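Support request, please re-run this one:
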Amino acid sequence: MFSTDILIYILSGSSLILAGTVIYLHLRLKKILCGKSGSDLESSIQNLIGRVSDVEEFRAESEKYLADLERRVRRSSQGIDTVRFNAFGGGANGGNQSFATAILDEYGNGVVFSSIYSRERVSVFAKPIKTFASEYELSEEENQAVAGAKSRLKSK
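Re-run finished. Output below.
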């Protein structure tokens, strides 16, 4: 059926193809090893493992830092509102020089400052606020300032 000459040509061609494939794979393996022995590959892998460990440690530190930062931001003053008013009605005394200013954190804790201005003197008051309320009675303007600061928190 097949002559031996044809069979020899087929086997020779197959041998050349296999030899080319072996040479190609040898060159690729040489690139991977980047050196003369497998120890170079092992040291490269160890180096990569060390770098991954460093990245994981950095990630853990970053998460801890961000959690602390978020906790501190929640306690910072975020809602601030000022209401100006005339403490003595429409007369010439005072104008709109009196004010109430509420300064609150995300949880509604903070302080409301109010000032009553007249020609003879200025009175300043401070009342603590816990969860948007005070244990001290708040004036209408102070309540407006707390409500305004609360609405600014919700709009964020």
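The chain has three domains: 1-33, 37-75, 79-154. Residues 38 and 124 are 79 Å apart (CA to CA).
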